[in-house]
Amino acid sequence: MTVERRTTRRRDALSKERIVEAAIDVLDTDGDRGQVFRALTVRLSTGVGAIYHHVANKNDLLAAAADAVIAPVMSDATTDGEPEETIRAIALGIFDSIDAHPWVGAQLSRDPRQPAVLHIWEGIGGQLNALGITGAARSDAGAALVNYVLGSAAQHAAGPGQAPRAADRSAALATLATEWEQLDPAEYPMVRDEAARLGAHDDRAQFLAGVDIFLAGIRTL
Amino acid sequence: MTVERRTTRRRDALSKERIVEAAIDVLDTDGDRGQVFRALTVRLSTGVGAIYHHVANKNDLLAAAADAVIAPVMSDATTDGEPEETIRAIALGIFDSIDAHPWVGAQLSRDPRQPAVLHIWEGIGGQLNALGITGAARSDAGAALVNYVLGSAAQHAAGPGQAPRAADRSAALATLATEWEQLDPAEYPMVRDEAARLGAHDDRAQFLAGVDIFLAGIRTL
DNA sequence: ACCTGAACACCGTTCAAGT
DNA sequence: ACCTGAACACCGTTCAAGT
């Protein structure tokens, strides 16, 4: 059925969209430390130069890939319901994206001016507006929430509990708990105390608890 | 006067402390992208292998260097005054360190288990304790504040306004404002709105405003 | 035990040559 | 205009040989 197309051009033309799409796959599989460009030439059966014809450099590629992940999440989460509820949905949407694509967590911290971060700003700023917060107060509240979300994202992406299988995850947490229990109680009393709670630890629930703390603080503005 | 020492050993022995100290200088000057190890061999007049004898790898070196910057800030800021005031002092101390050593901003996001991050946890957790917050509530509140601080740190370190001279800084902000004013108003209404405020923007004050929003949220727990 | 530095490995980027 | 892929550049890491 696709014979016509197949004879007119043997393969889809390269485009930034196709490259970004392939890059997301590669990054999900190998992480951002792997040989991203080399893997792309294989997957797209092309040369490196062709990729550089559509993309300025690795930074540009990662920024575009992160935005391709984040932008749709933002528009999906942004509904016309309760602003606070929408903010929670936005935050959870970002959290879940980073859980699925850990490299996005690190990427968002790399440059505050990249499209993905601006889209997050837009989403959160719009809801603060809807809450009647404007001017400098909105700047401050927006920065607080955005920075909290990005900080949590980076820490979550870099943390243990990122192991693909649940068994590896709980094993990693157990190892960490043992490590922390052996720390000097004089220097690290709090961390040792946390070790006891690691087993029942739920990053996602804790992330949401943090969003609620900020929302409560914003209500006092 | 130091003749005796000079003749017994021609140069101080290498140690992790000396390497870390030199690394902080190198990182401050060249950033973490520069050829850190090569610069270290020059500064310490030694070979790369000697450095690897005291340090496992670049990650280990950066983690140790970040902790050498952060740990003293934490113990200086931690006094027995008002817990909320101490939390502000801790947060500002971290902010100012990252302002002085931008590479620390990125490093703290790289691994939640590194000593510098654990020290931050200790400092903040201790003050939350003093506020009477314990158990799971302290975990949640602590995670929220630590993640906010680390997120702000990373964004600040990666942002403009990091130019050494004030003139470069305001030039960078002006360029950014112009860029943002040209964004599509339909896609980026909030960011365009922020552009107008960029001139008077003070990252440090906004960071502190975020800490205060968080503290207000904590009071409602 | 500690140091030396050449060699290696890794991966992003360039560039001359092709269609 | 777009693609090809070998060559280059950069920088962390290893390792055989020294003291």
From TrEMBL, chains A, B:
Pfam families: TetR_C_1. InterPro entries: Homeodomain-like_sf, HTH-type_TetR-like_transc_reg, HTH_TetR, Repressor_TetR_C, Tet_transcr_reg_TetR-rel_C_sf. The keyword ATP-binding does not apply. The keyword DNA-binding applies. Residues 13-73 form the HTH tetR-type domain. One of its GO terms (molecular function) is DNA-binding transcription factor activity. Keywords: DNA-binding, Transcription, Transcription regulation. Residues 36-55 bind DNA. GO terms for biological process: negative regulation of DNA-templated transcription. PANTHER family: HTH-TYPE TRANSCRIPTIONAL REGULATOR RUTR (PTHR30055), TRANSCRIPTIONAL REGULATORY PROTEIN (PTHR30055:SF151). This is Transcriptional regulator, TetR family. It comes from Herbiconiux ginsengi.
